[in-house]
From TrEMBL:
It is a single-pass type II membrane protein. Gene3D superfamilies: YVTN repeat-like/Quinoprotein amine dehydrogenase. It comes from Neocucurbitaria cava. GO terms for biological process: endoplasmic reticulum to Golgi vesicle-mediated transport; protein transport; regulation of COPII vesicle coating. InterPro entries: Sec12-like, WD40/YVTN_repeat-like_dom_sf. It is found in: Endoplasmic reticulum membrane; Golgi apparatus membrane. This is Guanine nucleotide-exchange factor SEC12. Keywords: Endoplasmic reticulum, ER-Golgi transport, Membrane, Protein transport, Repeat, Transmembrane, Transmembrane helix, Transport, WD repeat. Belongs to the WD repeat SEC12 family.
Length: 365
């Protein structure tokens, strides 16, 4: 019998070697697997935030320290005289805590876990000013399931770093979340449940560790109800990503694995958004499991190209592109197919983002 470790592994993509080798690894837990991961850049490496449940015994005592943080020390070249030598990369434990509310039911105590983590993006342009970011985590199988928004300025976030807590109705949870950074402590957190899209506004004073004013929330889109005479089920929303401050991209799985659709929603200052574009994926894509986007470098007018990667249940990967025409026009081109790949083992958006990073570097040459 072979046991597979629950571990976090660091890979170095700076080499052009055909095979990528791990440069550091840490066995994180014997109790449960890592369910989600996000990284913050630091001066000397990275801080990793991860979802990783405590033991079943700890969970039975309503003490599930599901939020873990780790420190990554990256290799450094020594001085020119011995530049061939490098320090080794390493991963170490920083801390763990519980940010979700304690579950109410015995089933949730046993089964609830941290399904998602998402950080606000770093500035697209280089800056010498330290960037203060926020994060969002979402639980699954909770009672209730929650979305917790927190200040991501600490390598060991605690309860006092929580900015907003959103509880979902019974049998509902966040399927995906994305964050738009507006500057000066302002953010918009967009999240999807099966049939609805909501945006949570955040205005936060990082120095005072408190919200400024009331952080309002609004529903901006709902999957239309089918015609009662047709007796059809509704598509379910699986993923969400910001394309611009006024455009959201949704990934929707049609009922009974009958196809996948991309939906672009244009937002307004008030009220619901409107669908401005739909794109149906090829017939072999019966259902999708994940989606991520990469915003390429903007030109002087603020226009940029966007790469979209979609992982499907048939282990295929579809890549699309769309152009954003800048703030003056505030509009998008049609979504165009770029390429598709078969037998790609997509396990999470981490892999999708790596593919998009490679795509971005190719397009920007």
């Amino acid at each position: 019998m072979v046991s597979i470790k629950n571990s976090i592994t660091l890979f170095d993509f700076t080499s052009r070697a055909p095979n990528v080798q791990p440069s550091a690894e840490l066995e994180v837990s014997k109790d449960d697997s890592v369910t989600c991961l996000a990284a913050l850049g630091t001066q000397n490496g990275l801080v990793l935030y991860a979802g990783n449940n405590s033991s079943e015994e700890d969970r039975s005592r309503a003490r599930n320290e599901h939020f873990r943080s780790f420190e990554v020390q990256l290799p450094k070249n020594k001085r020119a005289s011995d530049a061939a030598e490098k320090t080794e990369a390493s991963i170490g434990v920083l801390g763990k805590c519980m940010l979700f509310s304690a579950p109410h039911s015995a089933v949730a105590v046993k089964e609830a876990y941290q399904r998602l983590i998402r950080l606000s993006p770093p500035p697209r342009a280089a800056t010498n000013t330290p960037t203060k970011r926020i994060g969002a985590i979402a639980s699954s199988l909770g009672d209730p399931s929650e979305l917790v928004i927190f200040s991501a300025t600490s390598n060991r976030p605690q309860g006092q770093d929580i900015i907003e807590r959103i509880s979902f109705p019974k049998n509902q949870e966040a399927n995906d979340v994305d964050i738009l950074a507006l500057g000066e402590g302002r953010f918009q957190v967009a999240y999807v449940a099966d049939y609805e899209v909501h945006i949570q506004n955040v205005h936060y004073d990082f120095d005072q560790q408190k919200s400024i004013g009331k952080n309002e929330r609004r529903k901006v889109y709902a999957v239309p109800q089918p015609d009662l005479a047709e007796k059809k089920a509704r598509s379910k929303l699986r993923c969400i990503r910001w394309l611009s401050p006024k455009h959201l991209l949704l990934l929707a799985n049609k009922p009974n694995r009958t196809g996948v659709e991309l939906v672009v929603v244009h937002l307004y200052e008030e009220g619901p958004g409107s669908v401005v574009q739909r794109k149906t994926l090829p017939k072999h894509v019966k259902a999708a499991t994940d989606m991520d986007v990469a915003l390429l470098d903007a030109d002087m007018s603020g226009a940029y190209q966007i790469a979209i990667a979609i992982g499907a249940i048939d282990v295929s990967l579809s890549v699309y592109t769309v152009d954003y025409y800048g703030d003056a026009q505030d509009s998008l081109s049609k979504i165009h197919s770029f390429n598709s790949y078969d037998d790609v083992r997509i396990k999470s958006s981490i892999y999708l983002q790596n593919i998009l990073i490679l795509f971005r570097s190719t397009m920007c040459r």
